[in-house]
Write a structure and sequence with these properties.
Elements lengths: L2 H17 L5 H10 L9 H4 L2 H24 L6 H24 L4 H25 L8 H17 L2 H22 L5 H4 L1 H18 L9 H18 L3 H10 L8 H31 L1
Helix pairs in contact: 1-2, 4-6, 5-6, 6-7, 7-8, 8-10, 8-11, 10-11, 10-13
């Protein structure tokens, strides 16, 4: 249980004690101040639990869609500099509001929703900026830029939802890049091995995160994303078309592009590295006992 979950649980219990007459309101405020949860009204949002989280996330999504739609309907009438400034200002304002609510007012869930809004505006802004400056909006590089910009913020704000968005963009970039580079059979089918290797790397990265206490909260996001990528490929190969293409192409012409073997090597190295570190950690644990 991390610090935020501990404060939320204790704030909920203390509120129940106050309602039941076990402690006075003054004692409630003193306990909340001692654990850094603030005044009872400031932690009221925390007491609502996951309901507030769901409402906040939905609200962030709706607000992001509304802002994007507002700009889209008036897009051509705005000058390029105003469009660019609006995108950057909206993104920075969401980040600033989210940071203030999380770290100054201890409103973790609402602040995280505003931070999520900033992330969504950032990703939408990449495609809008590409349109403003006459760049291809269907380029896979935009997904890569989105992942590069989002994933460090996920660690900074300790948000697993944002991390999943970053991983999704990274996976979309890998898949789109492979489809763009190898559009024809048989290399199109062999390039799927790159996607499979990427899924293994994600899973191994999640397992590596478990070795460090500070990173452990993000382990599940990587592991689940890696499993979904691999299971998605398994689902694709439940259809007969990929297998028919492989059989028709023949084994010799089905030689994979070099990037496939590089990706498989990276995935294998990541898994082996994790296995070695896990084994060392296990031995040290037994030695300490």
């Amino acid at each position: 249980m991390d610090d935020n979950e501990y404060r939320e649980r204790l704030a909920h219990d203390v509120a129940g004690w106050t309602r039941g007459g076990l402690i006075a309101p003054e004692q409630e405020r003193a306990i909340l101040a001692r654990i850094g949860a603030g005044e009872p009204r400031a932690v009221g949002v925390l007491r609502l639990g996951w309901f507030v989280t769901a409402i906040s996330i939905v609200g962030a999504l709706v607000l992001a869609g509304g802002v994007t739609l507002l700009f889209a309907t008036n897009w051509d009438a705005l000058p390029a500099w105003l469009r660019t400034a609006s995108i950057i200002a909206g993104m920075l304002a969401s980040y600033a509001a989210g940071y203030a609510l999380i770290y100054r007012f201890e409103m973790q869930r609402v602040g995280s929703a505003l931070f999520l809004l900033g992330v969504l505006l950032y990703e939408a802004g990449l495609f809008l900026l590409a349109q403003i400056y006459n760049m291809p909006v269907n380029s896979p590089i935009l997904l890569l830029l989105a992942a590069i910009g989002i994933m460090p913020l996920a660690y900074l704000f300790e948000s697993r939802i944002v991390l999943l968005i970053g991983i999704t963009n990274a996976a979309g970039w890998v898949i789109s890049e492979m489809a763009k580079r190898y559009p024809d059979s048989p290399k199109a089918e062999s390039a799927m091995l790159v996607v499979a290797a990427f899924g293994v790397v994600l899973y191994a990265t999640g397992r590596l995160h478990e070795l460090r206490r500070a990173m452990k909260a993000f382990a599940d996001a990587y592991a689940i994303a890696g499993l979904l990528v691999v299971l998605g490929l398994v689902y694709v190969f439940t259809f007969s078309e990929p297998w028919d293409a492989i059989i028709d192409a023949g084994v010799k012409s089905y030689a994979a592009p070099p990037v496939v073997y590089v990706a498989i090597g990276i995935a294998a190295a990541a898994v082996l590295d994790f296995s070695d570190k896990a084994a060392i950690k296990l031995d040290l644990h037994h030695f300490e006992e």
